[in-house]
Amino acid sequence: MFNYFKQKNKNKSGFTLVETLIAISIFSMSIVALMSVLATGIADTNYAKNKIIASYLAEEGIEYIKNMRDTYVIYGSTSTQGWNDFKLKIQAQPACKSVSGIGCNFSDSLGVFDIATLQSSMNFSSCDNNNACSLYYYNTLGKYSYNHSLPGVDSGFTRKIMVTESANNPLELKVTSVVSWSKNSISYNVAFSDNLLKWKE
Amino acid sequence: MKINIKKLKNIFKKRPAPYGAEGSRSGFVLLFAVVVSSILLSVALGVSNIALKEMLFSTSAKDGNEAFYAADTAAECTLFYDSSSLVDNAFIGSNPPPLTYCDNRTFIFTKKSVPDIGFDSTFTFTIYRLGSSGKSCATVTISKMNDNSKTKVTSVGYNNSQTLISCIPTAASVQRVIEVVY
């Protein structure tokens, strides 16, 4: 055995070739590893970015409805009347009711959000027709909106609002906001829900 | 160990590698490949570390909102049962509201034997199975003065509870607190 190695050491021709082959294989393995990690890393970063945007959009959806509730309850003739008007408005669109599961959108380009504007111009429409709930991004305003008529681009996010009335308490409404997006034909979503009650005296 | 400067210099001498790579020159390509590979792998490790941090950050943004809305729901339910249009003098003395619903379920306010400092009576109530995932929960404490001059509602929400019938946070749960004083 010892003699064999001794002989090998003596005869070094071909060593550089073997060495180069091993070196190339190590090098290519590390390149492959780098590439795959980079690809996964970039995809993950992209997913994280979309998830952050989606959570803020879902939060915005709930805040819009909450703001509507507050405006109706504060500026209604009585707080109960305001609450009932608010409930009537949102439940007038069957798609908003959670049992249907379709979800709805709302007019988010009214500019002002006072009680008169809400009563006259606020509309809830079904997500079922013509991609109505997809959000467009307006670069100049830095804003996501359901309004598809302004110059903007489809952000790829869809937001559905759903409400469920409590069976035990007519003064309670559960609002769910679901933002979904898809990447490489896999769909993801972020959903938040909050219960709104008529607590103003 | 004595470093042989002459041999070390020999490595960097620009000349074609001899067939019989002798002494310190042998294995240089291998060494070079290992060094470059480790640099590339450390870059890959750095990239994956950044990606992992971003994933954790985006998850915390979602979890924070889940916990916040759980706390908000519980706070709204408490404010609702405190409004005088329902029950007069709720939470004063030993009077919790008789029948309480929150998120379409019955919950009971329990009176704490020792009220919080600065208040005459304190009640608590726990709600669970909240949020879109049904895992978030919240615990509310409402403290009142007997003359109704001051009320404090503290709602502590968590995005994740250990069980679905209690509100005990896990080690990784995110907490959000809403405090209402009036």
Salient structural properties:
heterodimer, A: 201 residues, alpha+beta, five-stranded antiparallel β-sheet, two-stranded antiparallel ribbon, 7 strands, 45% helix, B: 182 residues, two-stranded antiparallel sheet, rod-shaped
Residues in β-strands, percent of chain B? 15-25%
Task: Give helix % range of chain B.
Answer: 25-40%
Report the span from N to C terminus of chain A.
Answer: 97 Å
- Tally of helical runs of chain B: 2
Secondary structure tally, helices of chain A:
4
Q: Describe the largest sheet of chain B.
A: 5 strands, antiparallel
Structural features, described:
The complex is a heterodimer of chains A (201) and B (182). Chain A is α+β, with helices and mostly antiparallel strands. Chain A has one domain. Chain A has 4 helices and 7 strands. In chain A, the strands form 2 sheets. Chain A has a 5-stranded antiparallel sheet with strand order 4-3-5-6-7. Chain A has a two-stranded antiparallel ribbon with strand order 1-2. Chain A is elongated. Chain B has 182 residues and is an alpha+beta fold. In chain B, a hairpin with a 5-residue loop joins strand 4 (121-130) and strand 5 (136-144). Chains A and B meet through helix 2, strand 6 and strand 7 of A and helix 2 of B.
